[in-house]
Amino acid sequence: PNIVSKTGKLPNKIALTFDDGPHPEYTLKVLDILDEYNVKGTFFVVGENVEKYPSIVKEMVARGHEVENHSYNHPVFSQLTSNSEYSQIKATSEIIEKVSGQKVNYFRKPYSDSSSINSESDIKYLQKLKRLGLKANEYDIDSKDWRLDSADKVVEKVKTDINTNQQNYSQILLHDAHRDTQRTLDALPRIIEYLKSQDIEIVPVNKLGNITHAQQQTETTKEYRAITIKNIVLTFIVWANVIFVGIAIIRYGWLIIGASVYKISQTAKKLFLRNVDFKTFRKHKMVVIIACYNEEKVIGQTIQSLLDNTYKKFKIVVVNDGSTDDTAKIVKKIAKQDSRVSLTTVKNGGKSKALEAAIEKTTNKWVVFCDADTIFNENALEVFIRSTVGENLGAVAGKIQVGNDMNFLTRAQVLEYGVSHIFIKAAQATTNMITVVPGAVGLWNRKALNDAGGFSSNTLAEDADATMSVISAGYRVEYNSNAIARTEVPNTQKMLFKQRTRWQLGNLQSLAKHRKGLFSRRYGSLGFFGLPMFYLDMISITLFPLLLAFTSYILINNALGNSLIFPPNIDFATSQSFIRLGLLFISIEVFTCLWVILFEQKSLWAKIKLLLTIPYYLIYYKTFMSYSTLVSMYRALRGTMHGWGHLHRTASIK
């Protein structure tokens, strides 16, 4: 049998106990009041507050008061595992003993107002304390100073309980850290005066239990080390979240403003161009270049979409980069039917070399590059040729849409592409800092491209590399959201991983190649804003799952009223300001998705399916992108290169 003994009730003796401190302002005032009446109190302190305000704990001891254990961060113990309870108690005792130099003898459980032993778990709790050399402590008079709305009511509550218990009392519960501690400060002198008037002696808790405080030399235990390590990790995580959530919010603010400015400028430009005679521009001949490798399933559909365009004065050059399937045969068949189509076959050497080979065989001022799996809208070339108004134009980026939204994975890419074009491309275009004219749909000025060195084979993202080079050569790069093309995106994780690791590795290579453009006048706003944003985008993609998980963790626990363990230097992580910041971060992410869905030209059912994809996109898809980016970074450090990164085609563009 388990024998539980209760001690501490002595005739006409009572202890004043103060929970939840130390507090930087109110605890010292409590000490002053106790000194004024020459009485000693017992402070059940919270470990994280001791770490934050060690000098106040030392002051308690110096003035002869008792310091005991009230957990590390005041959690609800019923929600903790046994190991967590043990760590909370032991680590806090060690913290107190290190600061105060005195042994801790008592532990008071947070949110506990019962001293009864009713279950096996209560016995195990007491056994746990015994192993730690502690005794359980409970009060029998609760002043309710944290709850009652006036000092008068607090005093009356104590008086009533004293009279009701008729000397069956031992401790009064007060608080030196709560929302209105001034109420406690006002009530405390009156409580002391009342107790003295009743000939009740005020003593520390250790005198009720006949325990003397010994000077304590402590050794660092694994529980204390665990909390120290955890605090270091949490500090890093919290600050990383604060910094990058802040940056993300600023970035989204810029994107929303930039996209709005772009929309206004496009409307103004449209009004201006009403007076422009486009007959001259329609005489321009442009060339469309398609570099391909093993694209027999899609190349015919792509070429036909171009031939069906409203703008007719162009030719198509298909560069077959050593395909081993029937790609060349299909192109030759089309070329026999339409003289605007021609085929050039080169030895397999990668996309950039294939593009350069095609450029050398043409002389047109304006060059459109198209991927082999991309279907142009029927007016896309017309829109491109109308975009050539103005001086010093180097390139125009078109808008890519997903043409095969058949499952959650492809619909997540619909949202991703939509955010990229509606917000990112539009905002970048307002200040000539577009980082990528996509190889799938982009118009280029041949002279600008040549001045920039053409398409280089030393990066996998030849389109990003060339875009930055064109801007650094002094040309403008614009974006036209009306030049639309649909592309076939990967519909399996394996295909997507293959594509994105190649893309991200190429982006990293381009960033490395143009690193001297950072804050360079030659790169203009791209150097001062575009490239830094590009770097931040790579970091944000990588950290997004951490940011979302941590922010959600804070918000969910706050909504449930759970107490979270945070070191004192970052307790702002649970503050209302941080919670609002987290809510704003998640709200903006959801808002951008909703905006994309609103303006997608799709059926109501298709929009509903996109709406249902948002949680998948934010939680799973972005985590997958983070992983792909990390793999790309690893490969970049290893110096690993890729070839074409050819994807399995399904010819499923609608």
Notes on the protein architecture:
The structure is a single chain. The model has no long low-confidence stretch (mean pLDDT 87). Helices cover 52% and strands 13% of the residues. Helix 6 (151-165) runs parallel beside helix 7 (181-197), helix 15 (408-429) packs across helix 20 (576-599) and helix 19 packs across helix 20 (576-599). The protein folds into 2 domains: 13-210, Glycoside hydrolase/deacetylase (TIM Barrel, Alpha-Beta Barrel); 243-276 and 390-638, no CATH class. Helix 11 links the parallel strand 9 (286-292) and strand 10 (314-321). The protein has helices at 26-36, 47-52, 54-62, 82-100, 120-131, 151-165, 181-197, 205-208, 222-272, 279-282, 299-307, 327-337, 351-360, 380-386, 408-429, 446-451, 462-472, 493-513, 525-560, 576-599, 604-638; strands at residues 13-19, 42-45, 66-69, 106-107, 135-136, 141-142, 171-175, 201-202, 286-292, 314-321, 341-346, 366-371, 374-376, 393-402, 441-445, 476-487. The strands form 3 sheets. An 8-stranded mixed sheet has the order 11-10-9-12-15-14-16-13, with helices on both faces. Strands 1, 2, 3, 6, 7 and 8 form a 6-stranded parallel sheet that branches. A two-stranded parallel sheet has the order 4-5. It is an alpha/beta fold. The radius of gyration is 35 Å and the shape is elongated. The chain is built from 21 helices and 16 strands.
